[in-house]
Amino acid sequence: MNEDRTAAAWHGPTRLSGRHVTLEPLSYAHADGLRAALADGELARAWYTNVPAPEAVEAYVDAALAMQGRGTAWAYAVLDADGEVVGSTRYYDMDASVPRVQIGYTFYAPRVQRTGLNTEAKLLLLGHAFETLECIAVGFETSWFNLASRTAIARLGAKQDGVLRNHRRHADGSRRDTVAFSIIDSEWQAVKRNLQYKLEQHAPGGKTHG
User: Fold this and answer.
1) Residue 152: CA atoms inside 13 Å, Cβ hemisphere, count?
2) What number of other Cβ atoms are within 10 A of residue 19's Cβ?
3) CB atoms near residue 174 (< 10 Å)
4) How far are the Cα atoms of 112, 126, 190, 194 from residue 197, in angstroms, in the given order?
5) In angstroms, what is the C-alpha Rg of the chain?
6) For 19-54, what is each residue's pLDDT tens digit?
7) Cα torsion at 185, 179, 140, 59 (round to 10°)?
8) What are the respective helix, strand and coil percentages of the chain, to the nearest 5?
9) Model confidence pLDDT, tens digit, residues 84-101
10) Rounded CA gap, 204 and 81, in Å?
11) Residue 105 in contact with residue 98, Cβ under 8 Å?
């Protein structure tokens, strides 16, 4: 492990690119694209998520950049192969002393859900975490009631660590039981192979076959 190189990598987010997706450090320049991705308001209607309504995008970016300023998160805009903003994701609860990160705050426009874009975005984020930031673990958290998210996290190859009772609050103020998952460094190569295999099942821009 090159400690100087690894320490430098923790100084801030960098652009991550693949065939289906590009992750750009989030900025106010992405606000219009995020509003378009959220235009129908459907993603924000699920009470157990923290997806912003279109009119709350600026406040969402404000909060994301404030977390980044405190050194605890790196937020990204998610762009499709044509360069159109289709969502957002981030590392959070970042701790270089472990080192460990969480991946979350993720949402996508409906048209790109369950496509190669999502698979490749996770491959890029996990690859950067394990291979550049040299994390020993990457975590994921979701609400007990978010069954779709729990299923998607398990499909990545993450293991469920447990359920944290009354851990946080949902956006509506209700108490949230958080389901915690993780991938550890010794599991990364198998998870990486699995994600690469899933990515091969996607035609460019197409739906998953699995």
Assistant:
1) 19
2) 12
3) 11
4) 19, 15, 11, 5
5) 16
6) 999 999 999 999 999 999 999 877 778 889 989 999
7) -160
8) 40, 30, 30
9) 999 999 999 999 999 999
10) 9
11) no
* Residue whose entry in the numeric block shows the structure tokens 């915690």: 180
The sign of the torsion formed by the CA atoms of 63, 64, 65, 66 equals: positive
Amino acid 206: pLDDT: 44
Length of the chain: 210
Cβ neighbours of residue 131 closer than 8 Å, sequence gap 6 or more = none
Give the phi and the psi of residue 28 in degrees, each rounded to 5. Answer: -65, -20
DSSP β-bridge partners for residue 9: none
CA distance 151 to 90: 19
Alpha carbon 17 to its chain centroid, in Å, reads: 14
**Residue 210 and residue 203: Cα distance in Å, rounded?**
12
CA distance 174 to 179: 16
pLDDT in tens, 48-79: 998 999 999 999 999 999 999 999 999 999 99
Question: What is the rounded CA–CA span in Å between residue 161 and residue 40?
Answer: 35
- The residue type at 203: A
Tokens of 166: 């009354």
| pTM for the model | 0.92
Render pLDDT for 133-156 as a digit per residue (tens, 0 to 9): 999 999 999 999 999 999 999 999
